[in-house]
Amino acid sequence: MTADEQKKAAAIAALEYVKAGNKVGLGTGSTANHFITALAEKARGGFDVECVATSRASFQLASSLGLRMTTLEKQPHLDVTVDGADEFDGNYQLIKGGGGALLVEKIVATSSRYMVVIADQSKKVNALGKFPLPVEVVPFGVNATAWKIERALKLCDLKGKMQLRLKDGKPFVTDSGNAIIDVTIGHIPEPRRLDNLIKSIPGVVDHGLFIDICGIILMGTDDGVKTFRKG
Ligand code: 5RP
Q1: In this predicted structure, what is the pLDDT of residue 38?
Q2: From the alpha carbon of 102, which atom of ligand 1 is closest?
Q3: Residue 194, exposed/middle/buried by CB under 10 A (0-12, 13-18, 19+)?
Q4: Are the C-beta atoms of 16 and 40 separated by less than 8 Å?
Q5: pLDDT of residue 231
Q6: Cα(146)–Cα(203) distance, rounded to whole angstroms?
Q7: Angle, in degrees to the nearest 10, between helices 3-13 and 30-44
Q8: Do 40 and 66 form a contact (C-beta atoms < 8 A)?
Q9: Ligand 1 pocket mutation, candidates 86, 94, 136, criterion most atoms within 8 A of CB
Q10: Is the Cβ–Cβ distance between 210 and 94 less than 8 Å?
Q11: Which residues are catalytic?
C-alpha cells in the first residue's frame, strides 16, 4: 500500500466515529481531504452532519462537495474533529502544522468532545521531533521571537534550527495572517514542558505540539487500519 492509500483507508475508517446529526471539525491536509471526500459521499446518501473547517482550503473542498458548513461562532461545541498529523508518539501527543493550519486546527480540536487522528504509518514515531516543529508567530519582530524560542529550547537542553517558512520565495502567511517558524529539533524528550515554554513567549500565537488533545488514532498500514485508543 502506498502512503496515500494508507491515508485514505484511515480516513474511511474514521467515518465510523461520526454519527448522524453530529457537528464535525474537518482537518487540513491530504489525509483530511480524503476524510472530507468520504464524508461528503456519505452525506449525499442522506447522512446529515454539520461541519466546521480548519482552513480556507478545507472549507472550499467541503463546500464544493456539498457538505453543510457552519462556523465555530455559531456552533462552539463540536462532537468530533477528524484531522491528520505530521507525527504522533505512543502517548497520543502530536506534531501538526505542516500544512500551516495548526492554530485553527487546535482551536477546533479542543472545541470537540474528541479528536480522531488519521494517518499513514510513517507518522508514528518513538519520540516527537524529527518533523520540524511549526511555531505560528505574529509577523512583527519575528527575529526577536525566534531568539526567544531558541532561549526556551536551551532551558530544555535542546537546540533548534530556525527557518522562516516561505512560499513562492515570500514568507508564508497563515489563514490568520501570521508567519510560521519551523524549528528543527530532532528529538523532544519533554513535549509538555516545551509546549508551555514556547506558548508563553510574546509573539508566539501557537505551535504544533498537540498535548493531551487527541484520544483516538487510526493508522493505515499494509495490514489494514490499526486503532490506538487512549485509556
Ligand atoms: C496541517 C496539518 C496536517 O494534518 C499535517 O501536515 C499532515 O498532512 P498530510 O495529511 O497531508 O500528511 O497539520 O496543518
Answers
A1: 98
A2: 14
A3: buried
A4: no
A5: 81
A6: 9
A7: 40
A8: yes
A9: 86
A10: yes
A11: 105
Q: How far is the CA of 28 from the centre of ligand 1 (A)?
A: 6
* Chain-centroid distance, C-alpha 9: 18
Phi/psi of residue 64, each to 5°? -65, -25
Quote the ligand 1 centre to 75 CA distance (angstroms). Answer: 24
Percent helix, percent strand, percent coil in the chain, to nearest 5 = 30, 30, 40
Contact 116, 154 (CB under 8 A): no
Residues with CB under 6 A from ligand 1: 27-32, 83-86, 96-102, 105
Mean pLDDT of 28-38: 98
DSSP 179-198: EEEEEE-S--S-HHHHHHHH
**Measured between alpha carbons, how far is 34 from 68 in angstroms, rounded to an integer?**
17
Residue % of the chain over a pLDDT of 90: 100
- Nearest 5°: phi and psi at 159? -125, 145
Which residue in this structure is represented by grid cell 467515518?
15
pLDDT per residue as tens digits for the range 87-119: 999 999 999 999 999 999 999 999 999 999 999
Q: Report the C-alpha gap between 126 and 132 in whole angstroms.
A: 15
CA-nearest residue for atom 6, ligand 1, is 98
